[in-house]
Amino acid sequence: MFGGQAKIEMDKIMKPLLRLQLFTFLLFSGNAAFAANSLPLWEAMERAAQVNPAIKSQQVEVERQTLEQDIARSQHLPRVDLNAAYTRYAYPTLVTPIREAGVFPPMDRDISNIGVALNLPLYSGGKLVAGEALATHNREISVQALRAGGQDLLFNVVATYTKALHFRELGKVLDARIKALQQEESDTELRIKQGRAARLELIRLRTQLSQARYDKVSVTQGEKDALALLASLLGERGAPPVLSGLGTTLPVLPVSAEDAMNQGLQQRPDILRLDAMGKAAQQKTAIARGDRLPQINLVAKAQESAGGDWKSYDDWQMGVQLSLPLFDGDIRKRKVDQASLEQRQNALQQEDARNRIAAEIEQAFGALSEARARQETAAQGEAEATEALRIETLRYHSGENTVTDLLGAESALWSATANRLQAGYDITVSQARLLRATGELAPDSFRPAATGAKRVSGGLSSLDAHTLTQYLSWHRCETTVCGNPVARNNTDEVPSRIAFTETDFLAYPIKQGASL
Question: Confidence class of residue 28 from pLDDT cuts 50, 70 and 90?
Fold first, then answer.
């Protein structure tokens, strides 16, 4: 009897444990599948560079210019044509030229002939050489245009990807904030029933809760818009990609503005493109000048002619042709002037590009330094706002202040958290902008330092634990985050601040009570 009761009690204990193990297995399996299907930043950049339609269009242009280069090379080769004709004349005509002195050739009204003609350029005033060089420079222009388009595309992918991540993390903060405000709303309603609080406190609390809910809707829509834009950059349709986060990225940046400037002048695709355009303008000038010089061609022809009796007569000829322009109303002279002006225009564009690159590099360095300093200040401000909220919460529950003071402290914490996220976003974008300014932005720039260190999204991250601890500590309530209990706020201890790297959180401008 006692053995049967023990078995029943053991079954009662084992069944929940088995269910817990099954739930844990399914949870980890879901996280593993999520990680396998998620898209890291470097892979998104790599995919965009491969499948984006605009980049593919520029690749087609490179192929077209390669064919133009082959065409220019072939202009040096002889041209051989096969000619055939049949003609019926109104009156008898010579079938073939005079072949012997004193012998008159046959005549006929129906004459047919077939032959081969050869034309070989001997001298063209340097136009053929210049044309081949021009085709080479035009191909280089298309290659550098492809690189420039790729750099812009990669930068847009970084900015859009990090913006979507920022909205996602900001949404988690708002979820915790709304939950905390809802719990405070319930507590206030209870205190009103007990006669310990005025109804005005509940009205003010609900006003802030309504604003938080609106912010959540705006953030959610912002994330959807960012993901839709990212999908278009990736050349995809349908469901938006699932982002996996940045992980620990350490892009290699120039150590100084001088080094960045040197790299930019050597590697920036727009500088190299303008340089190729300048060389192309020189070749256009050479071609325009070549039009004013004589043209000499070697010509040869071999043919066979026959009359109505189909008796054939062969013939051949070979010679040199000279063509010299004498007067064309100064058309060729004006073409030379045009090409010279194009060279001057390109030189000015190169000077402007160098000045613009110097300004971009200075701005990128300044923005990166400012974002890093702002992140440190924002982290300190968040810690101070957390402490202020803790103090105001204790004072509010002890009756030493009003709900206005408590909501003001909560609003300050929300603004400080948003500022920290904004600074992290600005750091990542500034890094990408600096790499683009030097022409070195590539998918590997944001590849995580360790492949196994990928951060898996889904469930509650360390951000949730930290944020929930801050917000839920208002109410001395207990919850669990990732299976770990969050302690009650019944001591003067501040929850430990989790250390975040500068790329862990990304942000987008947001202000309390304003549109997101």
Answer: very low
